[in-house]
Amino acid sequence: MLRLCAPAALFLSSCATLTTPPPITSPANEFATTIASFERSDPNSPAVLSVRLSYAESLLSSDEGPCEQRIESAQQELDQVEASPETAVMFPEGWPRTVELEYRLHLGRADCLGDSDRDGQLRAAVAAARHAAELYAGSFDYPAAAIMQFNTAVVLHQLGDSTGAFSALEATLAMDREFGFGDDARDNYKLLLTWQGRATDDAQVAALMQGFPARQAVLHFAWHAQQNHVALEDSRDCLWDGVISHSHAAASYGREIAADSKGGWKVTYLPGAVPYEPGVWPTLEGSAAPNIVFPPADIARPNFTVSATGAFVATTNSEALAAQLVSQTDGLIHAHAPADQDASALTKAALDTTAITLSSGLLVAAAAENHQIETSMWTGATLDQGVWYQLSAPLSLRGLSRVVVQQRLEFAFTRMVPCTATAREPICVELVVRTTPDQQAVNNLIKSYTSSTATRIVMDPATLLAYSREDRLYWYASIGNGPKDMTLQSEHFKSTTSD
Fold first, then answer.
1. Interval 240-255: pLDDT, tens
2. Most buried residue among 103, 124, 133, 346 by CB atoms closer than 10 A?
């Protein structure tokens, strides 16, 4: 039985079970077989939710059988996903995919019902498309967001709302220019000309495409001395034994970057205005005392040095910082320990986890990994906008920070943005990194585990000074088939730098 969210040592096992479903394009009975297989082997895995969504998509894409029956079956699959407690936390494809399916269901009903409630279904489809566009943008999936914005325009045009349709299509074209979606822009300009009743030949489209940006990010390491403020927040949701608990961690630092005597740079953090809050105890709906506890969030920032070329060298105060953080966190655990019969065992487990999570070794490893993701991996890179690149690197597993496996990183330069909230000129680059562990490597270590991370980084390409970072991630781990043998957790981390 597991009592902690993210108890790193407890998930290690020599048994291996694949938790990520293969692509499915099979008939209904094969979908049912796949779902049943997952429910037998790993009933709590969010992978089964992905299969249900794939089944719903298959039903909506098919033209076999009565459309009313297919739509009803797809709705049933979607209802099961949305009612699942796992969905309330997170699952591999996240909420944007479910809302997009709601959009497709409304379109399907509009076609099936004919004139019966066509306009009502189309209006509902518009609302779902707009919502899906917002959710995709929030998860940094900008191509999908642009597609849903385009779908909004098309459905508004079907409703006869010319003003709304033109406005939505122009917003789509603005996204095409911002994110460099050249092929989509050509198609969208052609549609715009069609709606305007104008000629749609290549010359007309080419005229509208004049000045379309072809951006490239050339990244150089050129740090300079500076002093600024760094604010970190980490919000986590955890599902354990059918109960969802919430945790919020925060920290504030003054940060100084200064040249060192070896030609490199030293980074020093000083406590800021916001007290260190590790997010150890969760907030449970309708409960005065917690019955599970989170490990401290990754918001501790030790001082460190880097070389003249930007490579991580070493931390300089990790031992002292670890002792200080463990003492602070232990105090919070003792002060808020629940008074039930399990309090003693729970408190001991929480203290043991804190000692591991905030150990000097893990602080050093986290500092090196964060610097790699935020700075050193970009040194000397040249990235074309909108092109996705890939590499592989050994990184720690989310939720199991002591376990390091090879992971696939897919990354892209997505757009130009202002460096800070108060800046006006878009001189910084936005980089999006998607990280997934090598499943075979995970299977060799852990019975059942899956995770996915989307990271957004804003940095000055001329210096590689990062101004903000945002992570949206989930991870799932299981050591058995019961609800108390698994943990599903999602996390939203934000780091913001200001003068």
1. 777 888 899 999 999 9
2. 133
